[in-house]
Amino acid sequence: MVGLLAQVLVSGLAIGAIYALIATGFSLLWQGSQTVNFAQGDFVVVPAFVMLGVRGLGLPLWVGVLAALVVSALVLGLLFKRVLVDPMLKHGSLQLAIATMALSIVIQNGLLDVAGGEAFPFPGINGGIDWGQIFLDWQSLIVLAVAVAAVTALNLFLGRTRTGRAIQASAQNPQVAVLLGIDVARMILITFLINAALVTLAALLISPIYLVKFNNGIGIGLSAFSAAIVGGFNQVRGAVVGGLVLGVTETFAATFGPDQWRDAVPMLLLILFVLFRPEGILGRREERRV
Amino acid sequence: MSRDHANLAGALGLVAAAAVLGLLTSPYIVYLLSLWAVYTVAATGLNLTLGYAGQISLAQASFVGVGAYTTAILLPHGWPFGATLALGALLCFALGVLLGFPALRVQGHYLAFVTLALATIAFLVFRNEAWITGGIYGIDHIRRPAGFTSGRGYLFLCLIVLALVSFGAWWLLRSPWGRAFIALRENPVRAASLGVVVRDYTLLAFAIGAALGGVAGALFAPLVQYIEPTPFALTLSFSLLLMVVVGGSGSFLGPYLGALVAVLLPEWLRFLKDYYLVTYGTAVILLLIFFPDGLVGLAERVLARGRTVK
Amino acid sequence: MTPVLEARDLHRHFGGVRAVNGVSFQVGEGEILGVIGPNGSGKSTLFNCLLGQLVPSAGTVLLDGQDVTGMAPAVLNRRGVSRTFQLLQVFPQLSARENLILAGQEHVGSRLARLFGRPDAGLTAAANRMLELFQLTHIADLAAGGLSYGQQKLLDAAMAFMAGPRLVLLDEPAGGVNLTLLGSFRERLRAMNTEAGATFVVIEHNMDFVMSLCTRVICIAEGKVIADGAPEAVRNNADVIEAYLGH
C-alpha cells in the first residue's frame, strides 16, 4: 500500500509539474496581455508533432526538440501574437478569447488532416528505482526534476533579472512601465516567447505519458486552465501550486476512483475554486469588474 | 417599417426561403437546411444569453444534448414528439436556472471557465451513464413523428419550429424583458438602481437560452436518427458561440447568418477536401478580426454607406 | 409628520477608516436637501449607504418611518427611491427614449404581464413627456452613447424621474454641465420637485448651484454632520468654513 501511494504521489506530482508549466504560460499571457488562450492545450500538441515529424526523418530527438522550439517560437509565439492577439485585443479580451476557440478548432483539424487520428507513441525512459516495496519510475522522477528546474529558473528570471522585473512591471501596470522607460511591447513579446518555450518543454515531458494525438489538447487544456485558476489566475507562482495540486488529485482519483470520471476532477476543482475562492490558493483577491 | 419588424420579417423570410429551397433541391441540401434550422434555434438561445444579456456560456452544447437525449429516450416509450420537445425544453430551462447561479458571482472569463467545466461534466454524464443514455454506443433508430418522416417532411417540421422560435424570441426581445437583458449587459449597477432585479433577469437569460438549446436538441435527434455523446462535446459549444459572434452577437438576425455560414461554408469548401475545416476556422478568425460586429454589423455598414452615397 | 428619509447614527468603516462616523439627519416631504462637504468627507459613502449600494456598519436608514437599512438597490427603487450617478450612467446602445422606458418599466404591472403586454409597457407617452420636459425630444431616437455629455447628463436625470419617485438622490448633478445649460437644468429639477412632489437629496460641489436649488443644506466633514440649516446659514457657519479651508 505504501508502495502504491508513493508511486501515485510521484506520478501525480510529475503530471502536475507538467500542468504547472502549461498553466504558468497561460497565466503569463493572461497577465501580460489579457490573453485568455483557449488553445493553450493545443499549443502543447503542436511541438509534440514537430518532434515526432523530425524523428520520422531519422534524426535524433534533440534535433526534433530544437526544431520544435523554433517552430513554437515563430508560430505559437510571434505569429500568434502578431496575427491573432494584436488585432483581436482591440475588440476586447473576451472577443480575443473567442477567437482562440476558433484557433483551437483550426489546430486540431489541421493536425488531424496532416497526421491522422491515431495516437502516436513517443519515446520515453524505461526502468526505475526498486526499493522492494517502493518502485519509482525514472520517467516520473526526471519529468518532475526537469519541470521543477524549469519553473524555478523562470521564477528566478522573473524575480531577479532586469528583464524579468520589466516584464512583471509591464504586466502589472503598463502605463507606469512606459514612464519608467520600459519597452512594454517588447516585454509582452517576450512573454509570448516564454509561453512558446514552456509548451514545447511540456510537450517533450507529457508526450511519453499521454502519447501524441490531434485532440489531446482538449484534456490538457482543461487541466491547465484548472491549474491556473486553482493556484490563482493572477499569479505565476500560483500556477505551480495549482498544477501540483491538480496533478496529485487527478492521479489519486484515477487510481482509487472510477477511471471514466477522471476528467471530472479538474472540472469540479475549477468550479469550486471559481465560485468560492476565485483568487486561487495563492492569489490576491482582485476587485470584481462590473 | 421599424427595425423591430424588419428583424422579424428577415427571419421569417429566411425560413420561407429555406422551405422553397427544400422543395426544389436534393436530399442532401434538404438535410443541410434542416441542420441550419436546428443550429439557428440553438444559436438564437445562446444569442439571448450572450448577445443580449451579456452572459457568456460554453454549455449550450450540453443543453442541445439534454434535449436530444430526452427526445431519443422517451419517443420509444410512446411519448408524442411535441411532448418530448416540451419536456426537453422545460428540463433545460430548469438546468439553465442552475447554470445561471455562478453568473451571479463571477463574470467574463471566469464565467466562461465555469460553464466550460459544467459542459465537460455534462459530456461525461452522457458518456458514462449508459443505463439511460446508451453510453458510447448511443441510441439509434430514433423515429421521426408521423407525417414528417421523409427528409423533406422533417425539414418542414424543423422550419415550423424555427418560425415559432423566431416569433417567440422576437416578441421576448422587444418586450420589457429584452430591454432589461440589454440593461444587464450594458450596466448592471445602473439597471439595479432602476428597479431591474439583476438576479432574476440573469437567471432568466440563462434559462431561456438553455430552453432553446433543448428545443434544438429535440429537433436534432430525429433528424440524424442516431445520437451518441460526441456531437454534444465542447466543440459544439465553441461552434455555437462562433455562430453567434460571426453572425453578430446581440443582433436578432446574427444567429441565422452565423448558422448559415457554419453549415454552408464547409460545404462550399468541400473542393479543399480534407482541409475545409481548417479553412473554415481560419475564415472565422479573419471575420472576427476584420468584422467584430459580425455579418449583420457588416451588412449594416454597407447599407449605411449606400444610403449616404445616395 | 414622519420624515421621508431619516438616517440614524449611520456608520461605515473600511478597515480602520471611518468614512461615515455617526451621521444623523432627516429629510421632510418636498424638501431639497443639499449635502456639501470637502473631498473625502464621506459624502459618497453616505450616499451609497442610503441607496443600498453599501451596507452600513451600524445605524439605521428609515424610509417613511420604515427600516430599509441594507436593502438592495432594486428593492429600494421599487419603493420609490431613485438616483442619478456622479459618472454618466446611461445605456449607450439604447435610444434616449428606450433609456427612459427602461427606467420606468419595472414599476408597471407584474413581470409576467410585462412579457405579454405592450413592448413599451405603455410608457411611450410618459417618456415623450419627459423628453419634452428636459428638452431632449430632438434626440429621442438616437443611441444614448452618441449624445453629447450635457445631453447624457439630462437624460440620466430624466431617467430618475420616470417612475414617479418619492425620493431622488442626485450625485453631483451639476458636475461637467456647462454654464448655459446649468440654469435650465436647475429649473427642470425645481419643476420636478414641485410638480411631481418628489423629495431630493443632492450632493454637489458647485456652491452656487446648491444655494440656488436647495431648501436646506447639511455639511459633512470627517464622516460627521457639522452643520444643518438654511443654505445661507450653513454657508456662513464658522465650522463649515473651517472644514473647507482646513483641507
What structural keywords apply?
heterotrimer; A: 290 residues; mainly alpha; two-stranded antiparallel sheet; 75% helix; globular; B: 310 residues
Radius of gyration of chain B: 19 Å
The main β sheet of chain C shows up as: 6 strands, mixed
Regarding quaternary structure, what we see is heterotrimer
Strand residues, percent of chain C: 15-25%
Form type of chain C: globular
The N- to C-terminal Cα distance of chain B equals 20 Å
Q: Note poorly predicted spans of chain C.
A: none
Low-confidence stretches of chain B: none
Describe this structure in words.
The complex is a heterotrimer of chains A (290), B (310) and C (247). Chain A has helices at residues 2-33, 40-56, 61-89, 93-115, 138-160, 162-172, 174-179, 184-210, 216-231, 236-256, 264-276; strands at residues 128-131, 134-137. Chain A is mostly helical and 290 residues long. Chain A has one domain (2-216). Chain A has a two-stranded antiparallel ribbon. The longest helix of chain A has 32 residues, at 2-33. With 310 residues, chain B is mostly helical. Chain B has helices at residues 3-24, 27-52, 60-74, 81-105, 108-128, 130-133, 151-174, 176-186, 188-193, 198-224, 234-247, 254-268, 276-290, 294-309. The two termini of chain B are 20 Å apart. The mean pLDDT of chain B is 92. In chain C, a hairpin with a 2-residue loop joins strand 9 (216-221) and strand 10 (224-229). The mean pLDDT of chain C is 89. The interface between A and B is large, with 42 and 40 residues.
